[in-house]
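Predicting structure from sequence has reshaped protein science. With that in mind, we have picked out one protein's residues alongside their backbone shape tokens:
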Amino acid sequence: MKRKLIGALVGAAVVSLAAGQAFAQKGAAKLSGDMVKIGVLTDMSGVYSDLGGQGSVTAAQMAIDDFKAQAKPSWKIELVYADHQNKADVGSNKAREWYDTQGVDMITDALNSAVALAVSKVTLEKKRILLDTGAASTRLTNEDCSPNTVHYVYDTYALANGPGKAVTKQGKDSWYFLTADYAFGHSLEKDTMDAVKANGGKVIGAVRHPLNASDFSSFLLQAQASKAKVVGLANAGGDTINSIKAANEFGLTKTQTIVGLLTTIIDIHALGLPTTQGMMFTEGFYWNLNNETREWSRKFFGKHKKMPSMLHAGTYSAVMTYLKAVQATGTDEADAVMKHLKATTINDMFAKGGKIREDGRMVHDMYLVEVKKPAESKEPWDYYNIKAVIPGSEAFQPMSLSRCPLVKK
């Protein structure tokens, strides 16, 4: 009797061990050879390089380092990065190469809407994940939404909503637009026009300029001739900086209000408070908001020597959130990780109560800011007065207006 019992126990142990080994092998296979690989695809040398660029690489590496210190994972994490040169074909080809030959599991940043839309399609085809922290076009969560793409930081609806409403209600109710001539600019122009009209304003006209334009004089002369009270800049990065510089040189700021519709602290720092004081726009992050944002931002500054843009802060948050999802699910298989991400509430220095909707939009609070006068600034990079906190439910396009095929109505 004892022999039979011992034999049965030994047999059960062998079966249990075999099952455990099989599970471990399966888990290892699911984790792509015991490694998670993240790619930062960004503008490293062009018009948007200060907005994303090396700062995004730094932020992603910080997230990896912090995750390792906190979670102590048994698996490896590797970071790669590349310059997409603001070309959709370059971006999509690099994404395909990463997915096919380098085992990249997730791409982030994807700054530039044309690049992001192209990379999103490749990501879906290859069954990987894109956590887009850099592009702005709402097409990413509307017509071109994907179950494998998350639009994480901001979009043209959120950027337009704050200033379009606030500035128009101040009585500055006639607008003329200076617009970057590609998907992002078109989307930002349209969303701001809609916000202006919804709040009783009117649009006098618009002119479009090429990405990374070398001369804004002819475009600004048309804006000046329009006599519009507001000139809305539906551009970003170096184009926004050069537009504002030229507007000051041509004297537009004496008679017209310049509104940068995608303006960040990087732009304000480059231009200086004397040039930008009084400007109002929407931001997704401000380093000097509270103790948590200050602590993280000063750590970032120690590595990058600049305070973070909302894109940099969002990239850190996205990478950290992704790694936590991989840890929780025990796999880097896209469907399982995405399911977990959409069930997660994101609480960190970037977002409080952040949620990823079925259309891929990560919903979080945004901020309507006004640039301080030079005398109001207490220290370097202390540039904003927070005029309003815009709840995520108001900041982003409501689901009732969604054009995403994934949304059930």
Remarks:
- Confidence is low (pLDDT under 50) at residues 1-29.
- The longest strand covers residues 35-42.
